[in-house]
Amino acid sequence: MPIQWIIIVFILFAIFKAWRAYAGGGLDRRKLLWWTVFWLAAAVVILLPQTATLLANILGVGRGVDLALYISVVVLFYVLFAMSRKVDRLEKSLTDLVREIALKNAKHDHEPDQR
Amino acid sequence: MKVIAVLPAYNEAAVISDVIARLNAFVDRVVVVDDGSSDSTGDLAKRAGAFVVRHLINRGQGAALETGTRLALDFGADVIIHFDADGQHDSKDIAAMIAPITERQMDVVLGSRFLGKAVSLPIGRRLILHLGILFTCFFSGLKLTDVHNGFRAFSRAAAMQISLTHDGMAHASEILDIIADKNLRYVEVPVTIHYTAYSLGRGQGSGNAVQIVWRLLINKFF
């Protein structure tokens, strides 16, 4: 099916990007390995859907595609949660940093209070 | 009794000088938190006689108020006033805002435009504010006549207990939550709000209200 090949091309692109990031120092070796394994596993499931169906049947799901969708949705929601926590922490750190610098600079300007 | 006004200001060059000039007579010191403005807000504020502290990047009104309040405490403030930099508040109301703290040992004084006179308040904004009042009553249990009014006064002791973590506009609700949590003594005082074309353009729009509610709900989860 054409959709399989479209996704495979995308997966190759994703793997290529991961290796480029690794070469550029933006991705450490553990993460590179993780992403490569993840994308290769996805490729296997896409080229041989019956492998996923095998696992799906064990778990009581009719089709492998359905299982893949269920797992994806759950994982994506969790990732969203984790990311939002991370962004909040970042925002807080950023505000703390900006405030710290502002107050430190203010201390420099602060002449003895006349009143 | 040292009274310090804290003004969070983001690109308010058009009005900041006037606002400070009108404030100077009523407070001992004006602290302007220039929240990463890209115009000359900070310089103008300094020239108008305010003490200016500058956020290198814009962090939001809540963050600016927190920075300014800490600085005011550092300066030895006995009373800290939150005041909008866009000119919608009336400095003549300051004496009435301070009185409950100095005379009746209140911790927090909240300005209310519905006890006072809201000069030319558009109907749409009035509706949104009333929804906000209901929302606040539901979540914090405080029965108020106004919410999200940036005009407030705090005793030194109260200001030391309040630490704002919502950087954006939701800080107004956060302050009310803290008042409820810590059982601070609060009172509302009528204040006049001047709704000019300028302050309406700068202030929180109706879309912003939705955003605030959304942030508050999201914060219940994350």
Automatic annotation (TrEMBL), chain A:
The chain crosses the membrane at residues 6-23, 32-55, 67-84. It comes from the Bacteria. Keywords: Membrane, Transmembrane, Transmembrane helix. The keyword Membrane applies. It holds the Pfam family DUF2304. This is DUF2304 domain-containing protein. It comes from Candidatus Uhrbacteria bacterium RIFCSPLOWO2_01_FULL_47_25.
Automatic annotation (TrEMBL), chain B:
Residues 6-160 form the Glycosyltransferase 2-like domain. It holds the Pfam family Glycos_transf_2. InterPro entries: Glyco_trans_2-like, Glycosyltransferase_2, Nucleotide-diphossugar_trans. It comes from the Bacteria. PANTHER family: RFBJ PROTEIN, UNDECAPRENYL-PHOSPHATE 4-DEOXY-4-FORMAMIDO-L-ARABINOSE TRANSFERASE-RELATED. This is Glycosyltransferase 2-like domain-containing protein. It comes from Candidatus Uhrbacteria bacterium RIFCSPLOWO2_01_FULL_47_25.
